[in-house]
Automatic annotation (TrEMBL):
Transmembrane stretches, start-end: none
UniProt xrefs under InterPro entries: Channel_Tsx-like, Channel_Tsx-like_sf
Keywords: Signal
Species assigned in the record: Thalassotalea euphylliae
Name of a matching Pfam family: Channel_Tsx
Record bears the keyword Nuclease: no
Protein name per its UniProtKB record: Ion channel protein Tsx
GO cellular component assignments: cell outer membrane
Family recorded in the similarity comment: Belongs to the nucleoside-specific channel-forming outer membrane porin (Tsx) (TC 1.B.10) family.
Length: 253
């Protein structure tokens, strides 16, 4: 069975499980990001990113999706790099599918996990894009202090590069001190090397302050910073490691 066929079968399992689906929680947001230093590879010093994001928890598992719209250029006179990138992830809980709790100690649940990645990129006289499909096993963990902590291992079917293995860790750590509410969350991605690309590592945390909480409207508007550290970005070996701090504003819809 090919990886894409496996992905479709797993997707079918998720869809079939939704016949009795119940939404436990959901969150939708729009984020604006502005870089404060150059991005590696494209050497862009003027980058604007708008991100539309959805996350939800269900009795059958959880779902996460986002779409980035990126406009970037090296300087005021340079051509604009335009990119739309998005991901859709769904994880089917084995506890739900088997009607029996799958947990042990801090291990909260185990999932069949699938992710679809899409990119559409355009520059003057150049355009490209890709569709990647990932299928694997996910886990969620009960770790003191964390609102959530997950680790997923995927086999990736990449359209433009050789297939590889990916590890994704997601986390959220809230801090409350009186009226001050801070969320530290983000992800860590590691992808294995293949014949045509090097292994890469991406550490991408955000630290956001809930400013709406000061006005009696918590979980409405957050401001903060995002840090992006990327070793061998896009699997390109030999470039300098990317290390970028960006300012962000996140509005919950």
């Amino acid at each position: 069975m090919t990886l894409s066929r496996t992905f479709l079968v797993a997707g079918g399992l998720v869809v079939s499980s939704m016949t009795s689906a119940q939404t436990i929680w959901s969150s939708n947001s729009l984020t604006y990001l502005k870089n404060t230093s150059d991005f590696e590879v494209l050497t862009n010093d003027d980058v604007d990113v708008f991100t539309l994001e959805h996350a939800s928890g269900h009795n059958w598992g959880d779902a996460f999706m986002f779409v980035d719209r990126i406009d970037a250029k090296a300087d005021a006179n340079a051509p604009t790099h335009k990119e739309t990138y998005g991901e859709v992830t769904a994880r089917l809980s084995l506890s739900y599918a088997l009607d029996s709790k799958v947990s042990y100690g801090p291990l909260k649940d185990v999932f069949i996990a699938g992710t679809y990645e899409h990119a559409s990129i355009s520059q003057p006289n150049f355009s490209t894009g890709f569709d990647n499909y990932l299928i694997g096993v996910g886990t969620s963990w009960n770790i003191p202090g964390f609102a959530f902590f997950g680790a997923d291992v995927y086999q990736a079917n990449n359209e433009l590069t050789d297939n590889d293995t990916q590890l994704t860790i997601t986390y959220g750590y809230p801090i409350t001190m009186g009226k001050h509410k801070v969320m530290i969350d983000g992800y860590i991605d590691w992808s294995s090397s293949a014949d045509d690309h090097a292994a890469d590592f991406h550490f991408n945390p955000q630290v956001r302050l809930d400013v709406g909480n000061y006005f009696g409207k918590p979980n409405a508007v957050e401001v903060g910073i995002e840090y992006s550290y990327w070793h061998n970005k896009f699997g390109i070996a030999g470039i300098d490691d990317e290390s970028v701090v960006s300012a962000i504003v996140k509005v919950f819809l």
